[in-house]
User: Which sequence fits this backbone?
């Protein structure tokens, strides 16, 4: 076990200050995340260095569509999450035993990222489960990766307190952040969390790094035009060029609702595009909603077929009208 950061000693036990749950732990208790435990008046990370999943993924799989499109990124994940979403797609990984996973030091993980390039090293994505609950290992690894010239990407639920987020910001180049709904009741009922800390996380991250948002559209729960319009208004107030991925829901974990109709996805994309320049449809293979179009003239900028991309921009600008495309690394 590795001593955790962001906790206070209490009598008895400890108070974890990593995320907005502020778990009070004693007598060997474990936090809601399942990977932070009190032992003899100290807080320990159970998953430090424990990698339960590792792959070389297309950057579009994160999903990041406006950050070095077409590149492959070394992707790693562990167990543990501080939310409990009924529709979680990675729940088996999240609920896994952290100690059973293979152990790596931060230096070993960076060496692996340098070895498995595409064909040259690009970066590390901390993904699959919740990297915020892998905080100490992610921070140390990201610092080493940055020093080696690698990019760092965080795929996260955004349910983290501001102080640890501020420590991460200097070493994270891009975020994909889940905004699971634009209503607090949804977070409380279906995710065991709250909306407001997530919105603040997005606002803070967007002020200093590249941010893309994912919104999983669940039929009958967060798929109203009014809710998506409010979400788009808020995102546009931060940056109308911020890419948003409206992702189609499929039954998973405790949810058995039918898949979101493609027609609903298309309708909500039109709603969001009234305020946002770039709105994509996730989990709808082969749909034109995966392509990037110039918000000025409508010209096709990037065509996507699966995870294969075909660029139609020059120096990040539209070839037809010259408007900047808000895409990093083209």
Assistant:
């Amino acid at each position: 076990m590795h001593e955790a950061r962001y906790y206070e000693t209490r009598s008895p036990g400890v108070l974890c200050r990593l995320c907005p749950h502020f778990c009070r732990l004693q007598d060997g208790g474990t936090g809601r995340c399942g990977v932070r435990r009190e032992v003899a008046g100290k807080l320990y990370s159970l998953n430090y260095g424990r990698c339960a999943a590792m792959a070389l993924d297309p950057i579009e799989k994160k999903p990041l569509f406006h950050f070095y499109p077409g590149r492959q990124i070394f992707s790693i994940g562990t167990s543990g999450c501080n939310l409990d979403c009924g529709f979680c797609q990675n729940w088996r990984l999240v609920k896994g035993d952290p100690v059973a996973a293979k152990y790596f030091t931060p230096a070993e993980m960076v060496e692996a990222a340098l070895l498995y390039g595409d064909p040259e090293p690009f970066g590390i994505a901390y993904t699959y489960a919740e990297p915020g609950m892998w905080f100490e290992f992610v921070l140390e690894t990201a610092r080493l990766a940055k020093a080696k010239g690698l990019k760092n990407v965080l795929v996260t639920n955004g349910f983290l307190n501001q102080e640890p987020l501020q420590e991460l910001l200097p070493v994270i180049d891009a975020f994909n952040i889940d905004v699971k709904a634009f209503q607090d009741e949804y977070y409380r009922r279906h995710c065991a969390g709250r909306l407001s800390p997530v919105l603040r996380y997005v606002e803070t991250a967007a002020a200093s790094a590249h941010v893309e948002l994912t919104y999983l559209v669940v039929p009958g729960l967060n798929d109203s035009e009014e809710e998506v319009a409010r979400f788009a208004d808020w995102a546009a107030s931060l940056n109308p060029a911020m890419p948003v991925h409206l992702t189609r829901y499929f039954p998973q974990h405790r949810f058995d609702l039918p898949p979101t109709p493609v027609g609903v996805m298309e309708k909500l994309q039109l709603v969001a595009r009234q305020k946002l320049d770039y709105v994509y449809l996730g989990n709808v293979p082969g749909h034109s909603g995966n392509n990037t179009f110039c918000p000025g003239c409508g010209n096709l900028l990037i065509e996507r077929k699966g995870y294969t991309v075909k660029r139609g921009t020059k120096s990040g600008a539209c070839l037809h009208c010259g408007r900047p495309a808000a895409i990093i690394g083209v």
Summary: Residues 42 and 254 are 34 Å apart (CA to CA).
